[in-house]
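Narrative summary of target 7.
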Amino acid sequence: MSARYESIPAELVRRRRWLLWKTEVVNGRPSKVPYQAARPTQKASSTDPATWGTFERAVAAADLADGIGFVFAAEDPYCGIDLDHCRDASTGDLLPGAREIVDTFATYTEVSQSGTGAHLIVTGALPPDTWHKVKPESLGFEVEVYDRGRYFCVTGEPLNGAGPQPIRECQAELDALVVRYRKREKQRQGVATCRSAGATLPDDRELIAKALTARNGADFAALWHGDTSGYTSQSEADQALLNRLAWWTNGDAARVDRLFRQSGL
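Modeled conformation, tokenized:
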């Protein structure tokens, strides 16, 4: 994947959170090992700020490595969402579950270095006990979320092939993502069932309020109040609202039905 560093958001460029990475075999497997931008032969650590550098230094040394990376630090407002093995590198098509996540967050998103994944960067914080990696069987691809102690290999290649989107504040969407897939992982491991874990979600009124005030809340609000003007048919608008309700309710079919009947549609 060719890099387009000029497309990386300026607010990331300004931060001293940059390093290099090189592909090396670690424990018998290819791994992306971090190196210091100022000392390209010395390894870096995503938990040691002394080994991070400026964007300019990383770009200048990029030819000595396989690429550059951005570190997520606890004192920063950023969170990274890594969707792995979800994209056809030749056509650019995303798996449906990945497309749903990308459209829901509507934030800065770039193609991963392999071309088969996508990286989203938002502002928002994860709960202290949040998982970092999960592969829901229903999706068929991996979802990883980080807000500290990890780094992303950065390409700057916008997912849509056009201009990059700005980094969005997506706390509500991030909360919903964590609830949705952390719960599914626990259910798969037998720790909790969907119904018993359902208390994690807010009640109906609070849930709708969060959806209405989220970054893409205007689109949700139009559908919730019965406005179908952005769609070619009533059924298309119905399906759009159902998809959004499924996202916010963690796929709880009974709750989706109940909420849909309360909507303007």
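The CA atoms of residues 212 and 221 lie 6 Å apart.
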